[in-house]
Design a protein that fits this description.
371 residues; mainly alpha; Citrate Synthase, domain 1; 16 helices; binds acetyl coenzyme *A; binds oxaloacetate ion
Amino acid sequence: MNDEVQIHKGLAGVVVDYTAISKVNPESNSLLYRGYPVQELAAKCSFEEVAWLLWNGELPTASELLTFTRTERSQRALDPVVKQAIDLLPLTAHPMDVVRTAVSTVGARDAAADDASWEANLAKAASLFAQLPAMIAYDQRRRRGQDLVPPRDDLDYSENFLWMTFGELPSAAAIEVFKVSMVLYAEHSFNASTFTARVITSTTADLYSAVTGAIGALKGALHGGANEAVMHTFDEIGTADKAEQWLDDALASKRKIMGFGHRVYKHGDSRVPTMKAALDVLIAESGRTDLGELYDALESAMTERKGILPNLDYPSGPAYHLLGFDTNIFTPLFVASRITGWTAHIMEQQASNSLIRPLSAYNGVDERHLS
Ligand SMILES: CC(=O)SCCNC(=O)CCNC(=O)[C@H](O)C(C)(C)COP(=O)(O)OP(=O)(O)OC[C@H]1O[C@@H](n2cnc3c(N)ncnc32)[C@H](O)[C@@H]1OP(=O)(O)O
Ligand SMILES: O=C([O-])CC(=O)C(=O)O
């Protein structure tokens, strides 16, 4: 081992490039997309507007929005070949494996997959944005033994997503909660999945390869998989009065508590207050105060024992549960949102590319020879 080499395990604290897409500021606990505070975007914009902003750097004009939403609505239907590919996958496959395979199938069928022009990549990004809800909604339905629900072009993105998943529309308040979650999940600088997409892009591989890799990176419980894991934790604990004891046992056995902690935010995740307020709307609407009590009990016990605060996955997990999604669909919902941030980063990486290839320090056996 070379003692003089400084190892940055997990690249912690390493700044690897510039980005103009979002600014995560752990000191002020703020998150800006293209300069706009995410809370303002969540309150005032549709998810379609936020997607446009992330890709293009500015909010759409009225006519740009009209053209974009028309195109988006025309691309929502599940491609029959993609449906066939999904149907071939066993129900034992995790929905993240299904969505990864579905995106890969779209890529393999796109004759222009390797066209790396900005216009071609923007069109691919917008098309995946439009198609992901159908893939995810259909996967939940087939697991429930239900048929596909075709899209409706009289609904906006969030309404249509819920329509295709459940075959009915929830209250306006619930639709708004879903939209808020999509906006909050959309982008977060050089997180593990986005960085994966940038690494793949840096080799000049196509956008679909980068997105497929990013989906793989998001699946893990230390990243996007945590929203699903939070719900498993709640199921395991059961009721609020058992939270403290459960936590003590879990910490004693060195378990990581899902939905808590963050690589960048050490004083709380900027997105949590907005998502918690959205969760509270669903709790009030459903009367599930028991879930709210469990949420609060685990949060206060964790703060007291470890001083570690919740991340966005902590309120999102129970919110998706109350919206009616099955637990294993939660992380694919994150995919549907983060497709915007990933593809914005893919285009940014392409525009100013340098092959991403760090160094390693060798600590294996010394040179030796065959006798
Ligand atoms: C949208 C998102 O992707 S947000 C992240 C979602 N992931 C999760 O919720 C999974 C649970 N959280 C974690 O595993 C971590 O907090 C991570 C992976 C998110 C960040 O990890 P890191 O930045 O590497 O923090 P690190 O592991 O250095 O933690 C510092 C200390 O806090 C502890 N810690 C951090 N998070 C947790 C947690 N959730 N539960 C228990 N202990 C924790 C670590 O064990 C470590 O303790 P030690 O110093 O005694 O070894
Ligand atoms: O930034 C991170 O490391 C993880 C995260 O919160 C996200 O991707 O939204």
